[in-house]
Amino acid sequence: IAAQSLLNGVLKLSPSNTHAKSLLDTCKRGVVAQKQKEKEAYEKACLDGSVAALQAFISKYPKSSFVDDVKERIIDYYIWEEARTINTSDSYHSYLQKSHTQIYKKDVEKALLEIEAEKEWKKCKQFCDEESLSKFLKIHHINFVLSTIIILHFI
């Protein structure tokens, strides 16, 4: 970018300087290529999702326009890990409240469904009646084979 400024200054003084024009074009292509490389590195770090990959991106591109987003992703990872470790409805709802990026929102929704299914299953086993079992199977969309096995278990 500094070279571009310098070459633009040269071209102001000498607009017909073909060498300066050529160098300026080369600089512009280099900047575009560098930004593309940086974007690809950002996407790769996000796809990896690990704190190490995200921190490596920040180390390599500390002045990138993506740095703030990457930092948010790191924070989000730790909020997610805390919720996942505690593994309660409250911890997952806390994640949804605290997270700005909600990268793990689908994982949270899945975990909440699993927790709810487990509660329902415990109720079902406790009451051990056909109505509870039927309700559980319907709510949780258990496939036919699995529902047959569960029903046979109660008979």
Overall geometry comes to rod-shaped
Strand pairing plus helix content: what structural class? mainly alpha
User: What is the oligomeric state here?
Assistant: single chain
Order of helices and strands: HHHHHHHH
Q: Separation of termini?
A: 77 Å
The biggest beta sheet is recorded as:
none
Proportion of β residues? under 5%
- The residue ranges in which pLDDT falls below 50 over 5 or more consecutive positions are none
Averaging pLDDT over every residue, what do you get? 84
CA gyration radius, whole angstroms: 28 Å
Number of helices: 8
Residues in helices, as a percent range:
over 70%
Number of DSSP-assigned strands: 0
